[in-house]
Amino acid sequence: MRRADRLFRIIQVLRRKRRPVTAQEIAQELETSLRTIYRDVAQLMADRVPIRGEAGIGYVLEGGFDMPPLMLTPDEIEAAMLGAQWVMSRGDPALTRAAADLVAKIGAVVPEHLRPLLMEPALAAPKRYPNAPDAIDMARLRGAIRNGKRSRCFMPTKTAAKRAAPSGPSR
Q1: Three-state SS at 107
Q2: How far is residue 60's CA from residue 71's CA, in Å, rounded to a whole number?
Q3: What is the pLDDT of residue 42?
Q4: Is it the case that residue 63 has pLDDT exceeding 70?
Q5: Confidence of residue 160 (pLDDT cuts 50, 70, 90)
Q6: Residue 137 covered by a domain
Q7: What is the pTM of this model?
Q8: What is the pLDDT of residues 84-105, one digit of tens each?
């Protein structure tokens, strides 16, 4: 792996975790030596990437650091496509539209040699069999979750249906 790729992947590992990540964990994930990780983290810190921490304790990427990804890997493209396919076949209209927009955006930035992954992914989300439409307004529920609001959802159960069903003659 080239050094530039490794430096970027270290940043990605730190972005993904909310707790301190030890150099040992990073070395295992990147399949490289502990010494290389220490050297690379020191280089990132010298380049003013806001990493806090030290050897033996772990490292944390401070909030507010923004570095756009250089390029998606083939595995990342397939993961995004698989997720988008699943959402397009199962989501409400707003999410279905968003998933289609995601595929279009990825298609606009992916280099030519990776485009076959968009058109013919190795994996595909299973086709959805027709189900009854959701009785819940999923867009409204997502909005409540996003805004930290409480919501109530009632699911019918067999016992509730039995209780609600009229029984034989009363005594």
Answers
A1: helix
A2: 23
A3: 94
A4: yes
A5: low
A6: no
A7: 0.50
A8: 888 888 778 888 888 888 888 8
Q: Within 13 Å and on the Cβ side, how many CA atoms surround 6?
A: 19
Contact 14, 21 (CB under 8 A): yes
For 65-90, give the DSSP string: -----S---HHHHHHHHHHHHHHHHH
Q: Please state the domain count of the chain.
A: 2
Residues 6+ positions from 45 with CB-CB distance below 8 Å: 51
Residues 76 and 47 in one domain: no
CB atoms within 10 A of CB 160: 11
CA distance 17 to 9: 13
Return the SS3 of 132. coil
- Three-class HEC string of 137-153: CHHHHHHHHHCCCCCCC
- Residue indicated by tokens 């690379």: 40
Please tell me whether residue 117 adopts helix, strand or coil conformation: helix
Q: Tell me, what's the pLDDT at 97? A: 86
Q: Which of 116, 118, 113 is nearest to 85 (CA)?
A: 118
Cα–Cα distance, 118 to 27 (Å, whole number): 31
Range of the domain at 95: 71-126
